[in-house]
Every structure is written in C-alpha cells, then in structure tokens.
Write a structure and sequence with these properties.
This protein is of the alpha/beta class. The protein is 35% helix and 19% strand. The structure holds ligand BJW. Ligand BJW binds next to loops.
C-alpha cells in the first residue's frame, strides 16, 4: 500500500510563534465573543468590529515567525514525497507560518488572514494591510463588500473534497496542536482510523478526539513535532 500521510494542525502549533490559541485559559475566545466576531451574523451586525479584530491579528502575523515545528513539517513533506508517498498538510490556522517554513502540499480549511474576499463577486485577493467597510473590490469594483477570507461558524470549510479524499486513503495521520472541538476537523482522526491509518496526537494535552489516537505525545510543539517528524522520516527512508 502506498504510504499516505495526512497531518492536521491547529492553533497550538503557532502558539510558540506568539499567536494566540482559542480555547486555552488565556485564549482568543476568553477575551472576545466568537458570536460577534466569527459568524456571518456578527459581521452583518457590526462589520467595523469584525474588521478591527482581524486587522489587529493581521498586524500581529506580520511580526510572527515560524519555529522548529513548522520547519520540521516542511522537511517531512519533502522527505515523504521524495520517497514516493502521498502527503497532505491540512491546517485550521489562518496564519501563513507553514508556507513561510516551506510547506507546499497545504490546505487552509479555515481560510487565510492575508487574503480578502468580495461578498459581491467572490473574488479572493491578497490582503496584507487593514480592511475597512469602504474598501472597493479590485476585481469587480464594488465598494463595501470586502471581508476577511476566513471560515466563520456556520460556513462550510474550504478544500473538503481534497481533505476527505486524502483521509480515505491515509496510512498515517497526525493531529497537532488542536483541541478537537471544532467540526468537521474534529472528525478527521476518526475518519483516518476508519481508513486503517496509524494515528498520532501531538499537543499540550489530550483533546476531545483522544480515543482515536494510537500514540500521544504531550508537550510544546517545538519539541514534540521535530522528534515525531524524525521518526517518520526514519520510517519512510528505511
Ligand atoms: C499546544 C501548544 C503548544 C497550546 N504546543 N500544543 C454542535 C455539535 C457539533 C458541531 C456543531 C454544533 N454546532 C455547530 C457546529 C458546527 C461548528 C462547530 O464545530 N462548533 C463547535 C464549536 C461545537 N462548525 C462549523 O460551523 C464549521 N462549519 C461547518 O461545520 O460547516 C458544515 C459542513 C462541514 C463540512 C461539510 C459540509 C458542511 C466552521 C468552523 C469555523 C471555525 N472558525 C474558527 C475561526 C475562524 C478563523 C480565525 O478567526 O482564526 O477557526 S473558530 C477557531 O477554532 C478557529 C480554529 O481554526 C478552530 C479550531 O481551534 P483549534 O485550532 O483546535 O484551537 P484551540 O484553541 O481550540 O486548541 C489549541 C490546542 O493547542 C489545545 O489543545 C492546546 O492544548 C494546544 N496547545 N499550546 C502544542 N505550544
């Protein structure tokens, strides 16, 4: 059987880069109300507040840097593909730290902070500066329709066909730095297990999908992920 590795990452992998997680005690949702800031209804109700929330996080991302865990996953991707296996990195994160570390086979299922989308024509464009309610779409010219290119609660995540196709043939699956709280990502470990994959959880603590993991390693991602990636590279090269 062709080795096929699917990796799911969450906010925990970027915590040591200075980006906040969501549900830890000092997480984003302990300071901000997700109903107001991460739903289509919240955006319709107060777009200025939602733009402000994402503008501040976009500014924080400019200064953030990938760390050893992001780099280890990029190196693992290169080694896995070189050995003839299939590889897909699925991230729930809207930061671009995986790309900056060198990852290429990557799906941003919850969107990307450095992109904006027009609510009128659906064009997705690069966005490195603040968004406002008066911005015009560079594709269709309409004003006042631009929103962050992120997936809010109640919206369908991106790349689901590609992700579920990869999970169906996965031989190896790892969830890294995610609490396993948010669906559909929370179901990926079960789907990979059903496909016969060996499964790993790397995080600070057990998440909600714990019983679907064969192996767990709890600690900071900068330590657990390079260690795990090395064992995977040793396995694929053996
Ligand atoms: C470390 C570490 C270190 C810390 N090292 N680890 C009732 C039941 C079931 C489902 C639903 C329900 N009601 C509604 C739903 C659906 C809903 C949902 O799941 N809600 C639940 C909360 C109940 N889901 C949706 O609405 C999704 N859409 C959907 O389901 O569409 C239907 C559909 C799907 C598929 C096909 C067809 C139809 C959309 C979800 C959108 C999520 N959006 C957000 C915000 C937008 C982006 C942004 O602003 O950034 O995405 S919410 C937020 O949570 C963000 C994250 O990507 C997501 C996941 O969080 P994550 O990454 O797991 O972070 P944390 O903080 O929870 O966990 C961090 C972990 O790291 C912890 O475990 C730490 O221990 C660990 N850690 N430091 C290693 N140094």
């Amino acid at each position: 059987m062709k080795p096929s590795l699917v990796i799911l990452t969450g906010a925990g992998i970027s915590a040591e880069s200075g980006l906040g997680t969501f549900r830890d005690t000092d997480g984003v949702w302990s300071k901000f109300d997700w109903r107001q800031l991460a739903t289509p209804e919240g955006f319709a109700n107060d777009p200025v507040a939602v733009h402000g929330f994402y503008n501040a996080r976009r500014q924080g991302l400019v200064a953030a840097q990938p760390h050893a865990a992001h780099t280890a996953l990029a190196e693992l991707e290169a080694a896995w593909l070189a050995s003839g296996g299939d590889f897909l990195l699925v991230t729930q994160n809207i930061d671009d730290l995986h790309e900056r570390a060198g990852s290429r086979a990557l799906v941003h299922m919850h969107g990307e902070l450095f992109k904006a989308r027009c609510g009128a024509c659906e064009a997705v464009t690069d966005c490195r500066t603040d968004l406002s309610i008066t911005d015009a779409c560079t594709a269709c010219g309409r004003e006042g329709q631009m929103r962050p290119h992120v997936v809010w609660f109640g919206e369908i995540p991106l790349g689901m066909d590609e992700i579920f196709a990869a999970l169906e043939t996965a031989t190896h699956f790892a969830a890294i730095g995610t609490s396993g709280t948010v669906w559909p990502a929370a179901g990926f470990a079960e789907a990979a297990k059903a496909a016969g994959a060996r499964t790993w959880e790397l995080s600070l603590e057990a998440g909600e999908s714990g019983h679907f993991f064969d192996v767990t390693d709890y600690g900071p991602a900068s330590e657990t992920v390079p260690r795990w990636a090395k064992t995977m590279m040793d396995e694929i090269r053996a």
